[in-house]
Amino acid sequence: MLKFNEQQQIDTIQGALELRPTVEEIIDKVWDEGFDNVFYLGIGGTYASGMQAVTYMNGRSDLPVYVQHAAEYYTTGNRRLTEKSLVILSSVTGTTQEVVRAVKEMKEVGATLLGFIDKAGSILAELCDYVVCYEPLGTEQIKYFMVADRLMNRNGDFDDYEEYYAELDNYLAKGLVEAEKKADSFGLEFAQKHRHDAMHYFIGAGNQWGAVYSYAMCYWEEQSWLRSKSIHSAEFLHGTLEVIDETTPVTLFLGEDEQRMLSERVKNLLPRICANYTFIDTKDYPVDGISEKNRGRVLSYLLMHCVTQRIDAYVEKLNCHPLDIRRYYRQFDY
Amino acid sequence: MLKFNEQQQIDTIQGALELRPTVEEIIDKVWDEGFDNVFYLGIGGTYASGMQAVTYMNGRSDLPVYVQHAAEYYTTGNRRLTEKSLVILSSVTGTTQEVVRAVKEMKEVGATLLGFIDKAGSILAELCDYVVCYEPLGTEQIKYFMVADRLMNRNGDFDDYEEYYAELDNYLAKGLVEAEKKADSFGLEFAQKHRHDAMHYFIGAGNQWGAVYSYAMCYWEEQSWLRSKSIHSAEFLHGTLEVIDETTPVTLFLGEDEQRMLSERVKNLLPRICANYTFIDTKDYPVDGISEKNRGRVLSYLLMHCVTQRIDAYVEKLNCHPLDIRRYYRQFDY
Known about the structure:
homodimer, alpha/beta, Rossmann fold, 2 domains, five-stranded parallel beta sheet, globular, SIS_dom (chains A, B), SIS_dom_sf (chains A, B)
């Protein structure tokens, strides 16, 4: 299977899950000291991951948790982010300029900063109060949801926490590689059909909204140089639907959380106005060992990523376009 | 001038400004009774207006004010919206189904609902605790910012409140029609050049982010049936920039608030990677009688709307496409 190293992917997921005692120790300390608000700080892909974690928590908890955009912070600011606030961030390089600038200002405010910084010794790793360094890519959501889960557990919103993580520890890594194998032929077919689309619409809701936002922008636009637009399922019905016709390429991500019903409205509509649509439904990917009631948590996002990873692998090969090159980003100053 | 009734537009703005004593009475009552959080409730265009008001307040106040998406409310919910919360909404028809559903649930929670409902007697007008009915279109932002301004005035964040509104009362309506006249030839030129674009990118930040979000979706997509994508200036630099080339149609909205610097980065970059860009800068539209320090408030948004209104008028005529017809929205059930 193209660009697929089964053992490495299992090790990556298992390694991320093994960060839990470290994360718990940090969150328990922050919890015991007390805090006013929690902010997931991000820009681009990390902003999308923050949206996922916050939407996830809003449905299950009354904890005051928000997404904070890095560039909006050092311009507009946020006076509710104080010396008693917890800020969670993630960075592969540890050098994203807008995040560095926001974090420096947050340090002056005195907020507590927890960074999942892949690169030890980087500027962001040095600036954070707590740093968790783990290099393998593709585990940001596991870390973000792990923080969310521990916070909710301490807040009394997640009684089955230990049971849930026992399921993930035992079954998640294997389940994801099996899902990816199952998605492989679909990924090839989708890539063959859509790799020259002039524009592709991606639609989703709940924790799939962050997923489509990130997939359209960080994968199609940034990596594959393919034009795409993400739109929330509920918002699609308030404008974007009018530009859809028979030939418009549209892909709907269906997840398994409480916003699924918003995407199901789009699923009902699309076949009546379009003949070039695709539904990707995480329900089509059963995972042994994970309870039905737990599928709407991080699993639903991760399964979708397994599917899109197959698409990307084939688009890269068929379009003869390496995903790691950039036309402009970090190529010159602006 | 096409689709331009100067006296009617002046009367519309002046009439909206005359709602102020009513709005002040309501907000003062809510203020005196106390509240925990303020939510601007919306979907589609009203969601965009809510984003504008919230971004505006975040830069100037520590009041706990948030945007609440209507469909996300009745799915994911928001446990921080309580019986002590103030919810502000706006609707032209008073029947938007997702908003009706959210409002019904919020009433059960016991939140205080302030509705700017154009249509008296509609379901939303009946459901709200306080209703302000004013039919002329295009005044949603004035109302939303009026609420924001009174809240900030009561919170001690806006000492020059009376002086500011004296400027608006005396000079805003006339200033906007003069700006629209000034923008007319640009609107025609832009419409002629871009009315058949396969895709058009709109970029903005600050209170112009809600403006580009709404303009791309509610005007280009929904009304003109033209494909477009909105992207925040800071996010544009984290993905979307990679799909821009010489011929890509890109329009940057430059406003006058604290996020202007984020758009100026895009302004610096675009000429180096694209030869089909347009900058629309509200600074190019001086308004007599409005102080420089007050331009970054609602005026900046309203000036941009004057410019885009000229574009829309000419696109409608040249494309032989009436802006008030819909292919799908409210045409059948889904």
